[in-house]
Amino acid sequence: MYKVEIVTKQDALTEAALERRRRLEAERKQRIFDTKTRVMGLDLAALNAQVDERRSERQRDAQRDAAFAHAAHDTAVLLDVLDRETSALRRQQLREQNAFHQEQIRQRPAPSADPHPHEALDHVAALQRFDGEDERQRERKRLQAEQNRVWAQEQQYAKQQAREAERAREREAEALDAAIAAQQQLLSHAYESQRQQQQREQQALNAQLAVQRRAEEHAQREQQRQMERDEVERAINSALLTESAGRPTVTASGRAVRMDHYKGMTDAEIAEIARERDRQYAQQQQQQLAERRQQEEEAHQQNDLARGMALLHREQERLRRERSLETRRENERLAMEARQKRLAERSDLLVNREKDTYYTYWNQSSR
Prior knowledge:
It is found in: Cytoplasm, Cytoskeleton, Flagellum axoneme. Residues 97-118, 191-231, 283-302 are annotated as: Disordered. By secondary structure, this protein is mainly alpha-helical. The protein has helices at 9-32, 35-40, 44-106, 137-237, 267-350; strands spanning 249-250, 256-257. It is rod-shaped, with a radius of gyration of 50 Å. Mean pLDDT is 78; it is low at 115-124 and 242-246.
């Protein structure tokens, strides 16, 4: 049997997100390890592109969340309307059933007024009642009617209490939803304010680093030009090219030189050259140390920024999970209450519970 991996939509989205992160990381490494970018300064265009990309991503997330919220609200309104229609239809059916029962009761035939009903019966067991023996029949019927009225009032009162309790639960649910929505709005506003502040600080820091880098590069170029001018000056006015006074010697080319009296370099000049070399070496070491420190500081800033963004995303994910858990618990509670309500209404509709007073009026005749 071959093993086949089924790729779901969630797996595809996760793979796309991972691929996007890998691509961004590769682009970031390419910018960092690029010699031209590292020597000439920061890539403000790339940084601004990253800021714009993050802003557009957050806008897309906000639009998607708003669309989901609007769809959830429409679904809730539709369910409410359907629930109301179902309740109205159920009440109409109960009213029609009650009217049908009342009509059946009214259409029942009245007791026979024949003074000798026993003559038409075949046997004694078929006798229903004896006229003139039930002296409290009228009183018993009146009490039974009173008892039925009391039962009807109790059922109406119980239904009214159930409706009031349902309205109270609905008001509590609406208040809870409003509180949750207000809290979510406050959290969203705080998160957006913090994000904007962090973005402004990052842009200001990038601009400051760019200005500092340009100033350092300008100072380095000026120093290099000054060193080149000093080198040219030394090459022109150096003691190595200056001849001593004395009798010149004419060479084959017609130049007059005093090779035997060439002055050369003195010990002071050699020491000055050595000091200049040491100074240039120390300056180069300081410049390299400053560059390393600046690179380490930039790396620390990038790490702090990445850590802050990770913490922010983690907090946002935690808040989303908490809101989802609260919503699920609230939905479960409302579903349980609705189920209990349906069971209670069905029990009240199908079962007519008798009380002890109902049986006190039986077996009261003189028979």
